[in-house]
Amino acid sequence: RLNSPTRYFLPSPHAPKPSKPTDPARSPAMESAGNDRRDAALGSLAVLPDELLCAIVDLLQPTDIGRLACVSSVMYILCNEEPLWMSKYLSVGGHLEYKCSWKKTTLSRLSLCSGNSELEQKARHFDGMVHLLYVCSICLVYLPIHTYFHAGFNSLFLYRRWYRCFTTLSSYSFDNGHVERKDDLSLDHFHSQYDGKGPVLLGKLAETWPARTKWTIQQLVHDYGEVTFRISQRSPKKIIMKLKDYVSYMELQHDEDPLYIFDDKFGETTPALLEDYRVPHLFQEDLFGVLDYEQRPAFRWLIIGPERSGASWHVDPGLTSAWNTLLCGRKRWALYPPGRVPGGVTVHVSDEDGDVDIETPTSLQWWLDIYPHLAEHEKPLECTQLPGETIFVPSGWWHCVLNLETTVAVTQNFVNQSNFEHVCLDMAPGHCHKGVCRAGLLAVPGKSVRDIENHPAGTMSAWNHNDMTRAEKRLKGSGSVRASNSANQCASFEFSDVHESLENQVFSYDIGFLSQFLEKEKDHYTSVWSPTNPIGQREAREWLRRLWVLKPELRGLIWKGACLAISVDKWYACLEEVSACHSLPPPSEDEKLPVGTGLHCFRQCD
């Protein structure tokens, strides 16, 4: 929020200090500009809010956007928005070479650029266009406003988005936050105090890594400038860039949600980077390691991103745990425990295949627009990660990351004995348990929520709506919080059917509690496999079988996980029945888990 500074932002010592923060909606610039031009410029479309108009324009093809820009001064503004052209490029994907602006980059990618550079650079001028200054009340610095205030037209929506594109986080103060910092933690101490229990910031784990001195932007460009890396962005298309081109983009861009390198194949394209670090001793147990490299899910990533970039709210895939070591720059972390959906976030779980989809604002937008309005008891755990520090994120924990400056980091996800059963549970067919693992008791329609720790009293709204079908109920969780453009957003969960009401229960991330929500009528062999599971159906069976053979000391744990993930107890009962029917010897201890598809025996028993 522009008029709600938080304790983490410090004013510039050289900036003037106004006596009272000013909301841009009530600023002299807004009031003097008025909005008379809007009705004439938009005609019948003037009844639509600017946010919806921008969403509609985004549905058009680039050539149609160009034509629409010629209709009026307001349409010219809406059709030349950089976020619009960034969206158009990301919908195409491919190898990216940024050309100073997203409009020029997109038109060049689609071979729509004019050969006349003078025409490309010539701006369309409308009468009454002015250039204004506005004092930003968070950083207390003067910011130019180019197109969002001019005679007869203003747009708070466009201004807020523009502000997020140009705001700087350099004055973001260091804050210890609430996450514990530990040095020289022993493996036993880690398992007893933190593994599966809570996040922790760890120092000295990377002190001897060559990456501590070699993984600077300058050195990486020198060594790997011509190497192509994968780019992360909320886009269905794959984006790749050469490292030297990406660094050039970082220096030129003013994006609200900048692209950042998030490459899980860096070990293949640049194997030398793997020699610059090693997995810390606290995280070396990884039960996915029994699979061949091509069989196991993605598990390690190189992360490079500029100021304002970051990861929006999410739970790590498959309920794995993770560690993240920062080599340069600063990151701001926010975390909620399992089952506590952050404000402004919506979780959807398909009742057909268990596909999990999370709608969330960008990391920067959440910090600016939602965080300042959270009550103290609704705020997350927070910390600022410094170079050389490693943060541990346990299974099921929600987290959001904001880069306060250009950062380079490496991260890995893993499965160990602490989270093994949770990972197996998440592979089980159905959708009820997946919802509860992420959204807690908000995922249970008809539930009277009395979880004071995760959902404090006074934050619940009425959440059974008569106008909603049984197949789509929305449950409101973290109370109403104001988001951008004064829209009301709240944590919610879209869910389908549930067969029992758990009155007076309190949410727990304990596997015994979560397994209550498995849908008993569904089993591994006859149900649809969720596309968001970290590995495929055959790979899951192969993984558990290999663990069974290679880790006999863990067979008690492996059996519990296999019962959750692949209904191995039902499979084994069928196997015993078939053996008895054909007077065959009972299966040996090594034969208790299925090999191959595992379907023939199960169907024959049926």
From TrEMBL:
<dbReference type="InterPro" id="IPR001810">
    <property type="entry name" value="F-box_dom"/>
</dbReference>
<keyword id="KW-0560">Oxidoreductase</keyword>
<feature type="domain" description="F-box">
    <location>
        <begin position="42"/>
        <end position="88"/>
    </location>
</feature>
<comment type="similarity">
    <text>Belongs to the JARID1 histone demethylase family.</text>
</comment>
<dbReference type="GO" id="GO:0005634">
    <property type="term" value="C:nucleus"/>
</dbReference>
<dbReference type="InterPro" id="IPR050910">
    <property type="entry name" value="JMJD6_ArgDemeth/LysHydrox"/>
</dbReference>
<keyword id="KW-0472">Membrane</keyword>
<dbReference type="Pfam" id="PF13621">
    <property type="entry name" value="Cupin_8"/>
</dbReference>
<feature type="region of interest" description="Disordered">
    <location>
        <begin position="1"/>
        <end position="35"/>
    </location>
</feature>
<keyword id="KW-0408">Iron</keyword>
<keyword id="KW-0479">Metal-binding</keyword>
<dbReference type="InterPro" id="IPR041667">
    <property type="entry name" value="Cupin_8"/>
</dbReference>
<dbReference type="GO" id="GO:0016491">
    <property type="term" value="F:oxidoreductase activity"/>
</dbReference>
<dbReference type="InterPro" id="IPR036047">
    <property type="entry name" value="F-box-like_dom_sf"/>
</dbReference>
<feature type="transmembrane region" description="Helical">
    <location>
        <begin position="132"/>
        <end position="151"/>
    </location>
</feature>
<keyword id="KW-1133">Transmembrane helix</keyword>
<dbReference type="InterPro" id="IPR003347">
    <property type="entry name" value="JmjC_dom"/>
</dbReference>
<feature type="domain" description="JmjC">
    <location>
        <begin position="268"/>
        <end position="431"/>
    </location>
</feature>
<keyword id="KW-0812">Transmembrane</keyword>
<dbReference type="GO" id="GO:0005737">
    <property type="term" value="C:cytoplasm"/>
</dbReference>
<dbReference type="GO" id="GO:0046872">
    <property type="term" value="F:metal ion binding"/>
</dbReference>
<keyword id="KW-0539">Nucleus</keyword>
<dbReference type="Pfam" id="PF12937">
    <property type="entry name" value="F-box-like"/>
</dbReference>
<protein>
    <recommendedName>
        <fullName>JmjC domain-containing protein</fullName>
    </recommendedName>
</protein>
